Amino acid sequence: MIDHIILTSFKNFSNEIIRIGPFSLIVGANASGKSNIRDAFRFLHGLGRGYTLSEAIGGKFGDGGQLEWREIRGGPRYLTKIGEKIFSISVGFRVNEEQLDFSIAAGQEILGADTFRVWIEEVSVNDNEIYRWEADKENVLLPDFSMNFADILRRDQPILTQIHSLVEEKVKYRLVPGFIDMIASMRFLDLVPDRMREPSYPSQVVLGDRGENLPSVLNEICADREAKQMMMEWIRELTPMDVVDLEFPLGPDGRIYLMLKERDGTVISASAASDGTLRFLAMIAALLVRDSSRLYFFEEIDNGIHPSRLRLLVDLIETQTAKGHIQVVATTHSPELLSIVNEKTFKHTSVVFRREGTNDAIIRPVSEIPNAIELRKSQGLGRLLAGGWMETALAFTEGDGDGNGEETTG
Ligand SMILES: Nc1ncnc2c1ncn2[C@@H]1O[C@H](COP(=O)(O)OP(=O)(O)O)[C@@H](O)[C@H]1O
Ligand SMILES: [Mg+2]
Predict the structure, then answer these.
(1) How many CA atoms are closer than 13 Å to the CA of 28, on its beta-carbon side?
(2) Can you tell me the distance from the alpha carbon of 289 to that of 364, in angstroms, rounded to the nearest whole number?
(3) In a shared domain, residues 163 and 21
(4) 197 and 168 share a domain?
(5) Integer angstrom CA distances of residue 94 from 126, 192, 198, 374, 404
(6) One domain for residues 109 and 195
């Protein structure tokens, strides 16, 4: 499980920590920095895929010229906080009682160029250093290996994914491959209804980021009787008006077509289904499919979903993440969610807001606001958030020994 992420000079964050739980919610006004947090996760995921820094940040084309990986929003120019040269990201990763800490500091080799290099990189397990790389010292400390890694390592790719195959065998490093698997399997769902309407080939059992392959992924879930039953229960609850069953006819083109059976018996094609229904189906599919990703990032989870259904969706996410195999991080600007989530999720709900008069953003657990529990019960938190008061309340608590140092002038 990812436990926390620290962002330093990254986008609009100077030095902020965000605590991550089974289900973490990020609330905040427009342009506060919610999606910048997503960009940090995407950066980590790019590293997990074995990309160089420039590829992870600037995008990558496959051998056939097709886009394999989209650039991180803003590209190389806007990854580092404006006015800074180096950004860093640290991650805490826990497995049972053990913890791996990974941190990477990187920057443009020549300011303005799109080539990046690693300046400092470090991994420790239970506070014991596994390796540390410092560009100006040109050495990698890997106590258990006699060879000199400095000569064979690339400078523009994290050491983490370069020593992967070397450390795999060593028991002492066992958390390292687990961590790489975790970041490599992150998924970022940014659903586009038209993509979900398209038929897909039976072998396409991984849901695309835009919701591609929805028919074949749902079909795959239905192959397992128990999984199908659970899925249909959630679908019937979430979409009581429209969907009571799913059908998957095979087209003459060899692709699976998704058909939705409505309560009155009408069978309609996914191509004519409502956007909201398709979004639900995709989120259900993501959460219930076998071999699912370890961490999902849902952007603007409330988008196009009626508040009464939002409650059920939250329920589904909380049920699935409580099993301990997957984590979900979701952004929202809907304050309603604050009173819907359970206690555990509430503890992992953070608000992102801009420091007054600056471009800097701050991330704080909502539970830190004075009287958070009472306010939550009376649904007052949502009103505070909607009115911009929450930011003010939290800004006043700054400097209360939260370790972030600076005082605000608010
Ligand atoms: N490199 C950067 N340095 C400083 N601020 C940045 C940088 N890149 C983006 N920003 C700020 O981040 C804001 C967008 O944040 P975003 O995460 O997209 O907001 P939202 O909360 O709506 O998802 C922009 O308005 C911009 O001010
Ligand atoms: Mg956004």
Answers:
(1) 26
(2) 33
(3) yes
(4) no
(5) 10, 33, 39, 31, 23
(6) no
Residue whose CB lies within 8 A of the most ligand 1 atoms, among 7, 359, 391, for a mutation test: 359
Rounded distance, CA 388 to CA 213, Å? 40
Percent of the chain surpassing pLDDT 90: 54
Whether 178 and 195 map to the same domain: the answer is: no
List Cβ neighbours of 236 (8 Å cut-off, separation of 6 or more).
243, 244
Looking at 292, 315, 336, the residue that finishes a domain is 292
Residues with CB under 5 A from ligand 2 (ion): 34-35
Measured from the CB, is residue 38 less than 6 Å from ligand 1? no
Give the predicted TM-score (pTM) of the model: 0.91
Are residues 22 and 341 in contact, defined by beta-carbon separation less than 8 angstroms? no
Q: Is 145 within 8 Å of 169 (Cβ atoms)?
A: no
Confidence of residue 169 (pLDDT cuts 50, 70, 90): low
Q: Say whether both 108 and 147 belong to one domain.
A: yes
Distance 354 CA to ligand 1 centre (A): 10
Distance, in Å, from the CA atom of 296 to the CA atom of 111, rounded to the nearest integer, reads 33
Number of domains within the chain: 2
Per-residue CA distances from 189 to 61, 250, 329 (Å): 21, 26, 11
